[in-house]
Design a protein that fits this description.
The protein is of the alpha/beta class. The protein folds into 2 domains: about 20-110, no CATH class; about 135-370, Rossmann fold (3-Layer(aba) Sandwich), CATH 3.40.50.150. It is built from 12 helices and 13 strands. It has helices at about 25-40, 45-55, 75-90, 90-105, 155-165, 180-190, 200-210, 235-240, 275-290, 315-320, 340-345, 345-355, and strands spanning about 1-5, 20-25, 70-75, 135, 170-175, 190-195, 220-225, 245-250, 290-300, 305, 310, 325-335, 365-370. It has a 9-stranded mixed beta sheet, sandwiched between helices. The chain has a two-stranded antiparallel sheet with strand order 2-3. A two-stranded antiparallel sheet has the order 10-11. Helix 9 links the parallel strand 8 (about 245-250) and strand 9 (about 290-300). It is elongated, with a radius of gyration of 24 Å. It binds S-adenosylmethionine. S-adenosylmethionine binds near residues 149, 180, 196 and 253.
Length: about 375
């Protein structure tokens, strides 16, 4: 089970790791101290070296650094936990193993090609979700994020995806941009983003919102009005000087559950499920064309209920993506917390469910695919 806490509202720039206050230590001296631990001939010697190391990381201690290139940064609770683990080891071999692991973490960054998570310090990223059940208690309402566009993202969704599947300077494609949650998060995190949205007034709104937020990393945020079933994403990216995209986040209408407009091109106005899937397939085919090989596509969608039957729209949409050159990497189930309006109808839905023999929707899906 995963409880996702929103990032601190006062930090629109968002720390990329969230485990406590940062501790700046002199890298070379720390490595030397850890090497001494690893070379200890017996447990008492190792524990004496450890006590000396602990004394040197207190404020004003010999290992404290003012910051800068030569400093290594650890969240303090994390470092203390690692040191406590070394101390608690019952054998010399185990204590040396933990000390060696910490030494590796202090040596420098080791990141995967598709993100900036330092794998040598993976324990520091306790706010990056890796479980397949997302329970989001409170939506992030920081900065310009608003909950007033019915059907928009909880900002934590794009935040998690961007940090997990992109690096700064990468290009993200959002063909159903809506009220711009992904674009706002991308700008905050220094990722470039191209958004396409059918409704021109929304595009204006997104531009205004994005402009009202600080752009600390100089991200390029481009949003245009258009029909994503026939938009030339490559040409739009090229206009921005980009040859391809490194992540696609698709949050289409859940067929006709919410009618977003009267526009016949709107996927929420598709005459049937089959037509909806065909249109979604057209968008995916265009996305696959500009997405780099090995990079990710995220699809967020829920199921629907029609004529007394549960329609597994999520799984049908999942197949539509899989058929277009993608390997399925994960199915995440995310809770849906009702808006005030929906809450008023909660009792009615409960009654209907009891009468009709069904369950009320409380979840949606986040499908993760990797381009083959
Ligand atoms: C579920 S909303 C996306 C919400 C968005 N993730 C956010 O956080 O604001 C789906 C959006 O897709 C748009 N849309 C529907 N059909 C489209 C099409 N053919 N091309 C582009 N956008 C479309 C709708 O206008 C709607 O704003």
């Amino acid at each position: 089970m995963a409880i996702v806490e929103p990032p601190a509202p006062s930090a629109p720039d968002g720390p990329e790791s969230g485990a406590g206050a940062p501790l700046y230590l002199r890298r070379a001296a720390l490595l030397e101290a850890l090497a001494a631990l690893c070379a200890s001939p017996d447990l008492p010697t190792l524990r004496a070296e450890l006590a000396a190391l602990r004394a040197a990381i207190v404020p004003g201690g010999a290992l404290r650094a003012p910051g800068g290139e030569e400093a290594v940064v650890f969240p303090e609770p994390l470092l203390q936990a690692e040191l406590a683990q070394i101390d608690a080891a019952l054998s010399l071999e185990r204590a040396r193993y933990y000390a060696g692991r910490l030494r590796k973490a202090a040596q420098g960054e080791r990141t995967a090609a598709i993100n900036e998570i330092d794998l040598n310090r993976w324990k520091a990223y306790d706010d990056i979700v890796t479980d397949s059940l997302w329970l989001i208690e409170r939506r992030d309402g920081s900065g310009v994020h608003r909950a007033d566009y019915w059907g928009n993202f909880v900002p934590q969704i794009p935040n998690q995806l961007l940090r997990r599947y992109t690096r700064r300077g990468d290009w993200v494609l959002d063909p159903f941009a809506g009220a711009g949650t992904t674009l706002i998060e991308a700008q905050r995190l220094g990722r470039n983003v191209l958004g396409v949205e059918l409704q021109p007034p929304l595009v204006e709104r997104v531009r205004d919102l994005v402009a009202a937020e600080p752009n600390r990393h100089g991200a390029l945020v481009h949003v245009v009005a258009g029909d994503s079933t026939c938009t030339d994403f490559r040409a739009l990216l090229a206009e921005q000087g980009a040859a391809s995209a490194q992540l696609a986040i698709l949050h289409p209408p859940y067929h006709d559950i919410i009618r977003f407009s009267d526009d016949p091109r709107d996927l929420s106005n598709a005459a049937s499920i089959e037509r909806f899937l065909a249109l979604l397939g057209q968008v995916v085919s265009r996305v696959v064309d500009v997405l780099d090989r090995g990079r990710y596509l995220a699809l967020v969608i829920g199921d629907k209920y029609a004529r007394g039957e549960w329609v597994p729209l999520g799984f049908l949409a999942m197949q539509t993506v899989q058929e277009r050159g993608f390997a399925l990497k994960s199915i995440v189930v995310k809770d849906i917390n009702g808006t005030a309006g929906k809450r008023a109808q909660k009792e009615l839905w409960r009654y209907r469910a009891l009468v009709g023999g069904f369950y009320v929707f409380r979840h949606e899906y986040l499908f993760l695919f990797r381009k083959r």
